[in-house]
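User: Fold this; tokens only.

Assistant: Input:
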Amino acid sequence: IAHALLGIPYQKKIKSKSSSGYGATLEINSDPQGAEIYIGGNYFGTTPLILEDFPAGNYEISIKLNNYADFTKTVILQPRDISKISTILECLYTFDCAGVCDGDAVIPGV
């Protein structure tokens, strides 16, 4: 509730249950928020999300939201590294008369 009163976006934090002390921190954000996050094809939650003590390695991160183009990026996490992924998702519709993408769709030639 405090984050809403202060106008600060809420970010879920997930910390590894078995900490090695060598994990990385991965922060994932999207505009609009609420997009599904998949790491290596596994569902991890929705944006915004912070994963702490995440195992180092190479990962394919996918961010998906209905009516928006999927965003995919490969990241290399180093031990004790902090990596941030932030994207503005693109509406799939060129004319947003129905408000599908909150009026953010692009009208060609305008």
